[in-house]
Amino acid sequence: MDIKKFKKGEVIIEEGTFGNKAYIIKSGSVEVVKRMADGKNQQISKLEKNDIFGEMGLIDQLPRTATVCALEDCSISVMTSENFDSLAKRNPQALMPILKVLASRLRNTLKIIEELDNQEQQNQALTIGNI
Questions:
Q1: pLDDT (0 to 100) of residue 129
Q2: Residues forming a β-bridge with 42
Q3: Rounded to whole angstroms, how far apart are CA atoms 41 and 82?
């Protein structure tokens, strides 16, 4: 895997663009930002050393779901789809950390959806109670 350097404020991946690489932070930190329906950006998370991002684009090669920017100067390993495929063939067990990240992020997303659904139900109950 190649190592790339990114300066503070530099966009590493941009929401909506296509990509087939994943990134592992060796030093520094990044923020993950999602463009909301109202056009504003919302920070989703902050990632630091040994965290991975871009894994979905690496696997499905669909448009990026968020923008990732360097919060400080960063050194980041870049995993290409060729690296990923080679690793999958040689040592499939080495892919477990990526699969665990995907599972964890899916669980977090489902939890957020559940919380939003609960809030919506509470809002509906309050609205009905005020009628």
A1: 66
A2: 34
A3: 32
Token pair of 34 as six digits: 């999602």
Q: What CA–CA distances, in Å, run from 15 to 9, 62, 67, 121?
A: 15, 11, 5, 31
- Give residue 9's region: left, alpha or beta (phi > 0; psi -120 to 50): left
Architecture of domain 2-92: Sandwich (2.60)
Q: How far apart are CA 68 and CA 103, in angstroms?
A: 20
Residue 87: its H or E element: helix 81-90
> In sequence order, what are the residues at sequence separation of 6 or more whose Cβ sits closer than 8 angstroms to the Cβ of residue 44?
32, 33, 34, 66
DSSP code of residue 114:
H
Tens digit of each residue's pLDDT (9 = 90 or more) over 63-95: 999 999 999 999 999 999 898 888 889 988 888
**Residue whose token pair is 């630091």:** 48
- Nearest Cα residue to 54 out of 46, 45, 44, 65: 65
